[in-house]
Amino acid sequence: MLDGADTTVVGVVGNIYQTSLEAEPAAEAYTPMAQGPATFAELVIHTSGDPYLVLPAVKAAVLAVLPDVPLRTVRTMEEVIARRVAQRRLNMLLLGLFGVLGLVISAVGIYGVMAYTVSQRTREIGVRMALGASRANVISMVMLRASALVAAGLAIGAVTAWALSGTASRFLFRLEHHDLRAFAVAVATLAVAALIASAIPARRAASVDPMIALRAE
């Protein structure tokens, strides 16, 4: 029964997202236009090629059946979906740009910390090299120190992000806020950026002249 009248069901269709791609589909029923008043209608056509190539034929067919009804707002499904997600795409673009900016700031900060650490250990590095330590040994020492700091920071950051990820759930569409793949990509990206930022101070430490380093305060 539909609207208080007996209705014959002639078919069942799958879930249709009508008003929003983010809202779950609601129960709906399709009725013929001849059986009820209709203020507007949408015509959906599936084509195997360019949809705009069949537009003249579609307009002619609609004009032949409904001569008083104009055909307005012709769009492809890709254009419809693009309009629906345009605001979401803009928001994600802005968040992505802020993420890249945060990554750059983090890399610069790590570079500054490691450069300061190397400068504070200049005399120690000179002694090690004077006693026979090779460039590879010095680079390994600095990179191990950097790796320890990066690992500690990533562990603290990952735990904090996991705990606070629920606040980002309203920005996600059909994605889990506890997606391990996203966390893995984020951790790997930060780790690579941190190690690259640490490589320059490490190479600088390996190029220290032992005699100059031994005279450093």
Could you describe the 3D structure shown?
The radius of gyration is 32 Å and the shape is elongated. The protein has seven helices and no strands. The model has no long low-confidence stretch (mean pLDDT 79). The protein is mainly α.
SSE-based structural type = mainly alpha
Shape from CA axes?
elongated
Name the average pLDDT: 79
**Strand proportion:** under 5%
Describe the largest sheet: none
Rg of Cα set:
32 Å
**SSE order, one letter for each helix or strand:** HHHHHHH
Write down the oligomeric state: single chain
Q: Could you give the count of β-strands?
A: 0
Distance N to C terminus = 92 Å
Number of helices: 7
Helix content: 55-70%
Runs in which pLDDT lies below 50 for 5 or more consecutive residues are none
List the helices and strands and how they pair.
Elements: H1 55-65, H2 77-84, H3 86-120, H4 122-130, H5 135-164, H6 180-206, H7 210-214
Helix pairs in contact: 3-6, 5-6
Short description:
Helices cover 58% and strands 0% of the residues. By secondary structure, it is mostly helical.
List keywords for this structure.
7 helices, 217 residues, mainly alpha
